């Protein structure tokens, strides 16, 4: 027997074992993969004979994964998942000019979308699909070529970071709200309803500290997942929000939001283009990377 094949059981046996692990028994495993319970049992018995060790403990008509089976499953199941993903990618190969980019929702709507006509004019052959993602993910598990990340470069394992820009968050409110709640100094905001973005709940504490205000422990306040929801709440007169200025330029220009104190809050965090660290050279991605970096420098 070929030495490589010596350690490669049949795929039917492996998928039967995987299904039994995932579904907790032979009967439901058979239903999942289109085999009878007895067929699954035979496949697993053959696998156990191949490995010369039992993988399940049999108690009457019930089976339970034993320690050896669990150890085997821990290594085997991720490998089968990788085979499926590789097969899926090969079967659904995209055009070499197509990209899938994950973006923070507000960033995608307010910064990326208005600039896409320029990208299309510069690279008319590129076809870029965008999807919203708010948190880092494993590029090996997701079908994305790159993603927009806000934070620090070391927060996304397995990714290479291209710096885009830092942000400056400013306090904003509706002009009508400000007219009925006059603010003379930053400390006056301590009595106002203060809204923040849900992943940056400490932003107001940092803003007060930068403004030289002893804020103490701020009371709990509403938080929103997306900045544009935060902007709508502030524009409706619900209170004061701390929002990156580049995301609310239309509201500032129209006057639906105003800045009561021109004291922007900055930090060490920034926006980055995250790319898989082990990705092969992709001409379309290189074009997108060069474009977005140039756009960030010009912004």
Automatic annotation (TrEMBL):
InterPro entries to which the protein is assigned, alphabetical: LysR-type_TF_proteobact-type, LysR_HTH_N, LysR_subst-bd, WH-like_DNA-bd_sf, WH_DNA-bd_sf
Gene3D superfamilies per UniProt: Periplasmic binding protein-like II (3.40.190.10), Winged helix-like DNA-binding domain superfamily/Winged helix DNA-binding domain (1.10.10.10)
Signal peptide: none
Pfam (any one): LysR_substrate
Any one GO molecular-function label of the UniProt entry: sequence-specific DNA binding
Family: Belongs to the LysR transcriptional regulatory family.
Family matches, as PANTHER family: GLYCINE CLEAVAGE SYSTEM TRANSCRIPTIONAL ACTIVATOR (PTHR30537:SF26), HTH-TYPE TRANSCRIPTIONAL REGULATOR (PTHR30537)
Alphabetically ordered keywords of this record: DNA-binding, Transcription, Transcription regulation
Gene Ontology biological process: DNA-templated transcription
Membrane-spanning parts: none
Entries under SUPFAM superfamilies matching the protein: Periplasmic binding protein-like II, Winged helix' DNA-binding domain
UniProt-recorded name of the protein: Transcriptional regulator, LysR family
HTH lysR-type domain residues: 9-66
């Amino acid at each position: 027997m070929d030495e490589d094949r010596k350690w490669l059981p049949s795929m039917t046996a492996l998928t039967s074992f995987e299904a039994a692990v995932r579904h907790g028994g032979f009967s439901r495993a058979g239903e999942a993969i289109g085999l009878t319970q007895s067929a699954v049992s035979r496949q697993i018995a053959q696998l156990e004979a191949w490995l010369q060790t039992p993988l399940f403990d049999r108690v009457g008509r019930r089976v339970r994964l034993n320690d050896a089976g669990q150890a085997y499953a821990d290594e085997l199941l991720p490998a089968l998942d990788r085979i499926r993903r590789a097969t899926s990618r090969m079967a659904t190969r995209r055009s070499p000019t197509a990209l899938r980019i994950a973006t923070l929702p507000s960033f995608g709507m307010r910064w990326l979308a208005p600039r896409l006509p320029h990208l299309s004019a510069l690279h008319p052959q590129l076809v870029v699909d965008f999807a919203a993602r708010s948190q880092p993910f494993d590029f090996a598990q997701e079908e994305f070529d790159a993603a927009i990340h806000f934070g620090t470069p070391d927060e996304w394992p397995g990714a290479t970071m291209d710096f885009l820009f830092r942000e400056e968050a400013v306090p904003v409110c509706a002009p009508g709200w400000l007219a009925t709640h006059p603010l003379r100094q930053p400390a006056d905001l301590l009595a106002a309803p203060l809204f923040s973005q849900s992943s940056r709940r400490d932003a107001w504490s940092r803003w007060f500290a930068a403004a030289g205000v002893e804020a103490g422990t701020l009371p709990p306040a509403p938080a929103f997942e997306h900045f544009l929801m935060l902007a709508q709440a502030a524009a409706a007169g619900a209170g004061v929000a701390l929002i990156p200025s580049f995301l609310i330029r239309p509201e500032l220009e129209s006057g639906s939001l105003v800045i009561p104190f021109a004291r922007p809050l900055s930090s060490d965090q920034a926006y980055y283009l995250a790319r898989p660290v082990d990705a092969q050279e992709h001409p379309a991605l290189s074009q997108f990377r060069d474009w977005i970096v140039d756009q960030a420098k010009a912004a």
